[in-house]
Amino acid sequence: MADLKTVPVVVRELSDEEALAVALVENLVREDLNPVEETEGILCLLALELQISVEEVKSLLYRWDNEQKGKATNNVIGSDQQAQIKGVFEGLGQSWQSFVNNRLPLLKLPNHILEEIRKGTIAYTKAKAISTLKNEDQQKILLDEAIAQGLSLTEIKQQIKILKEQQINEDISLQERGLNNADEAEVLFKQQVNKTSQLLKKAKPLKNTRQQKKLLRLLSEIETLLTNTEISKDKEIEK
User: Where is the ParB/Spo0J HTH domain (predicted)?
Assistant: First the structure.
């Protein structure tokens, strides 16, 4: 090879759209691609192929999926579009049905969870499990804990089960006592403080430096907030 003065190559002139399609496909075969990037990349590729917007692609895929499942009676997608969509997924070695059912729902996850998937700090399956918690604060706490401690999917599901059972018991308890909004807020506040206090007592220095700094910053903010609250109370008493 070192003695060769010329190397045979094939030069193709590509339109802007063709060049973009090639770039998208090349990006989709990257080994370090996370699920969010892959999902968005495939949607862009389909939008380019079908000459419609990404939002229209998502709507079209959902409608076609519903038709296949017998949830829609009308032909929602033409044969040409079907062939184009199948062609894109065949080229990627994937199934469009699997994409609709397993990947599109990914984009509906809360932003704070999506961001961690983008960073590659947590696996999609774990993030999806955490998103089943209805309470956003619980989501964020468990998300941080899962990342910092490297919890397995099984451990995350166990934590979710415990949190959901606690929430049910708290709701029942509040209903039985007939608490008003102010009382309920105070009870929930004390319960959250107790839960957090128990976690802090068991806490050990985190291996993840970024998470350790974040935890220290949050603790500092809590301390400052509580200190300012006490100062405000003292001033009110003096008046």
Answer: 97-164
pTM of the prediction? 0.58
Count of the separate structural domains present in the chain:
3
Is the Cβ–Cβ distance between 33 and 41 less than 8 Å? yes
Are 138 and 148 part of one and the same domain? yes
Q: Are residues 115 and 36 in the same domain?
A: no
**Count of Cβ atoms closer than 10 Å to residue 48 Cβ:** 17
Q: What are the 10-residue block averages of pLDDT along the chain, 239 residues in total?
A: 52 53 60 81 90 93 88 75 91 90 92 92 93 91 93 95 82 59 64 76 74 80 77 54
